[in-house]
Design a protein that fits this description.
This protein is of the alpha/beta class. It is built from twelve helices and twelve strands. The protein folds into three domains: 94 residues, Arc Repressor Mutant, subunit A (Orthogonal Bundle), CATH 1.10.10.10; 101 residues, D-Maltodextrin-Binding Protein, domain 2 (3-Layer(aba) Sandwich); 95 residues, D-Maltodextrin-Binding Protein, domain 2, CATH 3.40.190.10.
Length: 318
């Protein structure tokens, strides 16, 4: 406790005073440089010496001389103040997005489609900021958000809101459709397919969606079907596209819009009775939001055409 009290008393201003006196080897010259009176500077130096219990300067008829203890103090103070100056510069640069890192978790992997356009814009606008992106399940990535490994997560509010220790900003309600190849049997029906018929086809899900927690699994339970198990599990979108084109597999798809879906695919809107999903960003409730995270969230909002939705301040744990 005595050491802590000593450090708190030796504030940065007094350390800088000591360094300037040592450099000038004169109280008079140092006072002029620092813009303080000689008496105030002498009093400050005396207070530092009293706190340390050591004499830092010999007072001579003309000027002063640094003592051995003073030399040790000056050397250490230079290192400490250098670190402080560097820290201040780093924080200022980070606040202005000149440097630093942006670390993003995406859950599930399919939400990378929403993230990638914002990433491109962010990297172009802030080339000095490094970017790290990781994908996975919400259950796997959430602890990394809480311990500071991520600045934010991007995903569905339906999954993120289960956790009370995250803050959520909902951006836009996502449209839902069943994606399949063009000419799929479901697309050739002259009437809307029954939900149980849709569930009879093999389903493709990303690895980063845990089947047991998915909304699709709940529809299997509703119809008394065997526990849901996706026939194909793959995170790579190119591989998923090849599977859809080559088989009768279907893929439940949430998206802000479906303008990017090409003519080789068929869409069945709202073919399953699923709860609404909103694209959302999540932050740790116990950590401050970084300027990079805030700017990136704004870019995602711009790219998806965010609606005027109320923020969910803290997940409701449902």
């Amino acid at each position: 406790m005595e050491w802590i009290a000593m450090v708190s008393h030796l504030d940065l201003k007094r350390m800088r005073y000591v360094l300037e006196v040592a450099r000038a080897e004169s109280i008079t010259s140092a006072a002029e440089t620092l813009g303080v009176t000689q008496s105030a500077l002498s009093r400050s130096i005396a207070e530092v010496e009293d706190t340390l219990g050591a004499q830092l300067f010999h007072r001579l008829p003309r000027g002063i001389q640094v003592t051995p203890a003073g030399l040790r103090f000056v050397a250490g103070a230079k290192r400490l103040l250098g670190d402080v100056d560097n820290l201040i510069a780093e924080v200022r640069e980070s606040e202005n997005l000149v440097s630093g890192r942006l670390r993003i978790g995406v859950a599930p992997r399919g939400y990378m489609d929403h993230v990638s356009r914002a990433l491109k814009a962010f990297a172009h606008a802030y080339p000095g900021v490094g970017i790290e992106v990781a994908t996975g399940t919400t259950q796997a990535l959430r602890p990394r958000l809480l311990n500071g490994e991520f600045d934010l997560m991007v995903g569905s509010s339906s999954y993120l809101k289960r956790w009370k220790d995250v803050e959520i900003r909902t951006l836009k309600r996502l449209q839902f459709a069943i994606l399949s190849r063009a000419g799929h049997p479901l697309a050739l029906l002259d009437h809307p397919p029954r939900e149980i018929d849709v569930l009879s086809y093999p389903i493709v899900l990303p690895e980063s969606v845990e089947p047991i927690y998915s909304d699709v699994a709940q529809r299997f339970v509703h119809h008394g079907l065997p526990p849901f198990q996706p026939h194909y599990v793959v995170d790579d979108t190119d591989t998923m596209a090849r599977i859809l084109k080559a088989t009768d597999a279907i893929h439940p798809l949430h998206s802000p819009d479906f303008r990017h879906i090409g003519p080789n695919y068929s869409l069945l809107p709202d073919a399953l009775d699923l709860p609404p999903h909103f694209i959302a960003v999540a932050y740790s409730a116990s950590r401050p939001r970084s300027p990079a995270a805030e700017r990136f969230a704004a870019l995602i909002a711009e790219r998806v055409g965010a609606e005027d939705l109320p923020d969910t301040a803290v997940g409701d744990g449902s």
